[in-house]
Amino acid sequence: MKKKYYSDLPRIRSLKDEEIDTSDVPELDASFFENAVVFLPRPKATVCIRLDQDVLEWFKSRGKGYQTRINALLRAYMEAQRNA
After folding, report:
1. How many domains are contained in the chain?
2. How far are the Cα atoms of 29, 31, 39, 44, 65 from residue 35, in angstroms, in the given order?
3. Which of 17, 49, 59, 76 could pair with 66 in a Cys bridge, judged by C-beta atoms 3.0 to 4.6 Å apart?
4. Which CA distances in Å does 13 have to 3, 4, 18, 20, 23?
5. Is 56 in contact with 63 (CB distance < 8 Å)?
6. Does residue 74 belong to any structural domain of this protein?
7. CA 22 vs CA 11, 30, 38: distances in Å
8. Is the dihedral of CA 9, 10, 12, 16 positive or negative?
9. Is residue 37 part of a domain?
10. Could you tell me the pTM of the whole model?
């Protein structure tokens, strides 16, 4: 995340509930929850995978969550192959 975001955190944390502008957030009524679905994420498997060093460094250079991004790309490829 950008440094500006982190610099605003103390100010944001100090706001009282009534000072927060929620005018662009609609109220949720019972009808919203009638159609809600509980979604539990799939469990992950721990594996050892050999990657080229430069590939791994590139993913890591993008910051936290590099394993999640690798998983997302592998999933996209898998789904594309299923539909081919």
Report:
1. 1
2. 11, 7, 12, 27, 31
3. 59
4. 16, 15, 13, 11, 19
5. no
6. yes
7. 17, 19, 25
8. positive
9. no
10. 0.55
Q: Which domain holds residue 83?
A: 42-84
How far is residue 1 from each of residues 6, 8, 58, 63, 80, measured CA to CA in Å? Answer: 8, 12, 18, 9, 30
Q: What HEC string does the chain produce?
A: CCHHHHHHHHHHHHCCHHHCCCCCCCCCCHHHHHCCCCCCCCCCCCCCCCCCHHHHHHHHHCCCCHHHHHHHHHHHHHHHHHCC
The length of the chain in residues reads: 84
CB 82 within 8 A of CB 72: no
Q: Which residue has the higher pLDDT, 5 or 70?
A: 70
Task: Please compute Rg for the chain using Cα positions.
Answer: 20
Task: Name residues whose C-beta falls within 8 Å of residue 70's C-beta, 6 or more positions apart in sequence.
Answer: 59
